[in-house]
């Protein structure tokens, strides 16, 4: 079987698994789990085979004309370069782990068949984006992911949080997709093709007439899909969905698509200095703002959600300084340890019965109860904090090293301002990342107080997946020396200056957070949680099934309550309240867009009901009254009819005489 044929099967197998799962889910429930796991696992194996055969050498291209569309045809095209094959391996492995994990996590969920099918379709769409060599085919996968995310985030549709989050994710990403589509059409009009190779050739020859405008239009879609400022607000709310869905979206699909898209078309963006500066500003604000927000979150999943936003900021920062090798390397490294973190959090929630870090800080013995999650998440958090020798250190250093070269003017065509902006924001974010990673670990695993409720042993499938993802988290960075063959041949070796600075920042952030925790840990044990919860009457415990089904904090809304035992509050001080709410960006959007839109809808409803419907009702009332009068005249009495005829004749005769006399 040829490499291109094998590559076609990679997205096709999960798609067929999704189709079979939807058709047989109710009739043959025993086949649902095999149809969820096996096609995705087979796709992952084939993705590894494709990567092995491609070997980081020359890109493999294959295409067939899909349909004639006039001047700009659409091709069903494959483009297999080093970036594509490695990202496909990441998608396949993470999706397989998510499907296997979900068989235990959602084992009693009556909607599991549709859930599993949607996860398979989600995976197929992302693989289509990764392998596609044509922008319109890529756009198909791009939009399918948006639809799947709507249904998966809203899986627990009985809760208002899930319904609102799914709608918000759909609308915000679609808001970015409108200019994204316009940008693709404008790009194809300038280049004369939707084929990515043809577009890059046109860029190299100066055939793109409006590179800045097109790049900015495309960046709007990337900001929405990859949750970058200012269109990042949907991602933290998407935590209302099942935890395995969060792992899939944050690690290997959806949010990674925007970064991967810019990496594929990076020469277009580097052709515009203005676009690079905009990208750098977007990355810097995203990195720092999301890290501050993560420090203030009480929901453990929202901490990781803001963490994902910040790490995506590192990737877009690497692209802003013209280094797609560092961006994709961090995408792959982050995908491994972030999937591990989310799935590990699922185990924690399963064991603690709550998403609340404040509640976990008042539980003792949680680490001993879930040793697999404890050890694997400890390593994953070290990777997130970029502590050597874990994978996150090498990939983050590749980003900061690229920013350093750009700042020093060593990167051709890259504005020095973009380099300095990404480097400064990256170092500050390294400090904050270590701080919130340390906070999560201390509050989740080093709580003081009564023993955590015992909910039984964790399913073996959940723990096994954690150890599978542990391997790339631990060892992927050590392969950095061999990865340049797949990554344009550029060096991914950490530079001394940024390594020392960023590691120092990370250690400082961890030490400061540990010192703050030491001051507050006694308060955590002494202060009853009901005294700090926004709802003091909330029940002290919510059962495992209710917590996993509703994803509500077990002790009420603690994020806005003044909890003196939170070390994040101690560090942020007055800034904590603003950071906990995401710096009120949702409130700004509500004032600027949501309220005016609702007011316009109410006005339209009033006009439709009181004006338009009034004319419709009037048009129906006149014939009805006429008909009523005619009906009353039909008495069936011949004398009445003759009298009416005689009266009418007399009236007509009189009228005729009057008219004749007047004439």
From TrEMBL:
Its EC number is 1.6.5.-. It comes from the Bacteria. Residues 68-115 form the NADH-Ubiquinone oxidoreductase (complex I) chain 5 N-terminal domain. One of its GO terms (cellular component) is endomembrane system. The keyword Lipid biosynthesis does not apply. One of its GO terms (molecular function) is NADH dehydrogenase activity. Coiled coil: none annotated. Pfam families: Proton_antipo_M (PF00361), Proton_antipo_N (PF00662). Residues 132-403 form the NADH:quinone oxidoreductase/Mrp antiporter transmembrane domain. It is a multi-pass membrane protein. The chain crosses the membrane at residues 6-23, 35-52, 83-102, 114-131, 137-157, 169-187, 199-224, 245-263, 269-296, 303-321, 327-352, 373-394, 414-438, 459-480, 500-517, 641-660. GO terms for biological process: ATP synthesis coupled electron transport; electron transport coupled proton transport. The keyword Transmembrane helix applies. Keywords: Membrane, Oxidoreductase, Transmembrane, Transmembrane helix. It is found in: Endomembrane system; Membrane. This is NADH-quinone oxidoreductase subunit L. It comes from Streptomyces telluris.
């Amino acid at each position: 079987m040829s490499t291109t044929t094998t590559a076609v099967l990679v997205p096709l197998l999960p798609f067929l698994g999704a189709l079979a799962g939807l058709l047989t889910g109710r009739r043959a429930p025993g086949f649902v789990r095999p149809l969820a796991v096996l096609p995705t696992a087979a796709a992952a194996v084939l993705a590894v085979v494709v990567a092995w055969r491609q070997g980081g050498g020359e890109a493999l291209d294959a295409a067939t004309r899909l349909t004639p569309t006039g001047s700009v045809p659409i091709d069903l095209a494959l483009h297999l370069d080093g970036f594509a094959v490695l990202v496909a391996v990441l998608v396949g492995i993470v999706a397989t782990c998510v499907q296997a994990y979900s068989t235990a996590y959602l084992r009693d969920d009556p909607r599991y068949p549709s859930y599993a099918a949607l996860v398979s379709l989600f995976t197929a769409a992302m693989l289509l984006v990764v392998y596609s060599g044509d922008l319109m085919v890529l756009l198909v996968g791009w939009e399918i992911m948006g639809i799947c995310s709507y249904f998966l985030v809203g899986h627990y549709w009985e809760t208002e949080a899930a319904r609102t989050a799914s709608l918000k994710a759909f609308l915000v990403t679609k808001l970015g997709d409108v200019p994204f589509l316009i940008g693709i059409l404008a790009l194809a009009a300038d280049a004369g093709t939707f084929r990515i190779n043809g577009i890059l050739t046109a860029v190299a020859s100066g055939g793109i007439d409006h590179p800045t405008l097109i790049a900015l239009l495309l960046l709007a879609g990337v900001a929405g899909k990859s949750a970058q400022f200012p269109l990042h607000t949907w991602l933290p709310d998407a935590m209302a969905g099942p935890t395995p869905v969060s792992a899939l979206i944050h690690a290997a699909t959806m949010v990674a698509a925007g970064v991967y898209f810019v990496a594929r078309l990076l020469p277009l963006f580097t052709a515009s200095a203005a676009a690079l500066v905009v990208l750098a500003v977007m990355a810097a604000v995203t990195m720092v703002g999301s890290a501050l927000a993560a420090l203030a979150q009480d929901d453990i999943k929202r901490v990781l959600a803001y963490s994902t936003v910040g790490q995506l900021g590192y990737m877009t920062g690497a692209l802003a300084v013209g280094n797609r090798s560092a961006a994709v390397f961090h995408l792959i490294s982050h995908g491994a340890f972030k999937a591990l973190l989310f799935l590990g959090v699922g185990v924690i929630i399963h064991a603690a019965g709550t998403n609340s870090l404040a509640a976990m800080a008042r539980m003792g013995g949680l680490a001993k109860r879930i040793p697999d999650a404890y050890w694997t998440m400890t390593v994953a958090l070290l990777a997130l904090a970029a502590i050597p020798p874990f994978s996150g250190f090498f990939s983050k250093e590749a980003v900061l090293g690229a920013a350093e070269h750009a700042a020093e003017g060593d990167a051709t065509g890259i504005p020095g301002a973009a380099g300095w902006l990404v480097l400064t924001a990256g170092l500050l974010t390294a400090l904050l990342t270590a701080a919130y990673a340390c906070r999560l670990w201390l509050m989740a695993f080093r709580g003081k107080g009564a023993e955590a409720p015992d909910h039984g042993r964790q399913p073996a499938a959940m723990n096994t997946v954690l150890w599978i993802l542990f391997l790339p988290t631990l060892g992927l960075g050590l392969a950095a020396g061999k990865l340049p063959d797949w990554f344009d041949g550029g060096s991914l070796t950490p530079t001394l200056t940024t390594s020392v600075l960023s590691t120092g920042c990370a250690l400082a952030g961890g030490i400061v957070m540990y010192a703050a925790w030491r001051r507050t840990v006694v308060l955590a044990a002494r202060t009853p949680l009901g005294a700090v919860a926004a709802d003091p009457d909330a029940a002290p415990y919510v059962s495992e099934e209710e917590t996993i089904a509703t994803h509500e904090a077990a002790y009420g809304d603690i994020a806005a309550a003044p909890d003196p035992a939170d070390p994040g509050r101690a560090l942020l001080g007055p800034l904590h309240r603003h950071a906990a709410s995401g710096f009120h960006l949702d409130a700004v959007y509500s004032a600027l867009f949501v309220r005016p839109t609702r007011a316009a809808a109410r006005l339209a409803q009033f006009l439709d009901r009181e004006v338009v419907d009034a004319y419709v009702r009037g048009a129906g009332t006149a014939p009805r009254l006429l008909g009523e009068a005619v009906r009353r005249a039909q008495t069936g009495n011949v004398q009445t009819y003759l009298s009416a005829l005689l009266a009418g004749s007399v009236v007509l005769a009189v009228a005729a005489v009057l008219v004749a006399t007047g004439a």
